[in-house]
Amino acid sequence: MVWRYGANRHVSFPRNQSRRYDLVLLDCYMPDMNGYEVARLVREREGEGTDDGYTPLIGISAEADAAHVQLCLDSGMDGILGKPLPIEEFKKMLALWCDYDADSGAATAVAAPDAGAVDLEALFKTTSRQDLQAMLAAHAKSDAQAVARLAHRMKGAALTMNRAPMVAALERIEDAVRNGAAGAAAVGELIAALEAALAD
């Protein structure tokens, strides 16, 4: 299920924990509470353990410069799409986060493509590097759950972008975390291998 926050200014992020969203579209410049604040709130709730799972958040904005994209990522968003919402880039985002077949043609009721659409390869590298830094920090704190969560998230994106070496490295990290204390010692080396795969 995809939910668009911003279509109705009276909508608030749902607190019903039994309802899950595969992806949330956030208008960056909403009245009352902007998209950055919503993203931070969602990530805070996830970090507190009050929300089961990880919700991909995609910003929607007419701005697409590097500084704005970084602001979105820093707030906890996973990507950004231009306005009017570009259908082909939107389909790629669905494929990246929701196991959607981008060639199926199912998502057709969105606006026409935008020539200024975000470069998904560049966005993938940016978000992967950000996740890698978060993974290093989590490993330094011996937070195995956070390492596993980040590895799973990164693996989904790497699979979509056909980055086989990254996928392999991330699967090894997941396996090591599942092995508990027996695999903890290897996680640092595996993260270094992931960093090398990302640099290729």
Spell out the blueprint of helices and strands:
Blueprint: E1 2-5, E2 23-27, H1 35-47, E3 57-60, H2 66-75, E4 79-81, H3 87-98, H4 120-140, H5 144-160, H6 164-178, H7 181-199
Parallel strand pairs: 1-2, 2-3, 3-4
Enumerate the strands of the largest sheet in spatial order, edge to edge or round the barrel.
Answer: 1-2-3-4
Which word captures the global form?
globular
Order of helices and strands: EEHEHEHHHHH
**Strand count, sense and closure of the main sheet?**
4 strands, parallel
Oligomer: single chain
Q: What is the average per-residue confidence, as pLDDT, rounded to a whole number?
A: 75
Q: Termini, distance in Å? A: 34 Å
Question: Are there runs of 5+ residues with pLDDT below 50, and where?
Answer: 1-17, 106-117
Radius of gyration from the alpha-carbon trace, in angstroms: 17 Å
Q: Helix segment count?
A: 7
Share of β-strand residues: 5-15%
Q: Considering DSSP H and I runs of 4 or more, what fraction of the residues is helical? A: 40-55%
Total DSSP E strands: 4
**Structural class, judged by helices and strands?**
alpha/beta
Salient structural properties:
200 residues; alpha/beta; four-stranded parallel sheet; 4 strands; globular; disordered N terminus
How would you describe this structure to a colleague?
By secondary structure, this protein is an alpha/beta fold. Helix content is 54%, strand content 8%. The chain is built from 7 helices and 4 strands, in the order ββαβαβααααα. It has helices spanning 35-47, 66-75, 87-98, 120-140, 144-160, 164-178, 181-199, and strands at 2-5, 23-27, 57-60, 79-81. The protein has a 4-stranded parallel beta sheet, with helices on both faces. α6 packs antiparallel against α7. It is globular, with a radius of gyration of 17 Å.
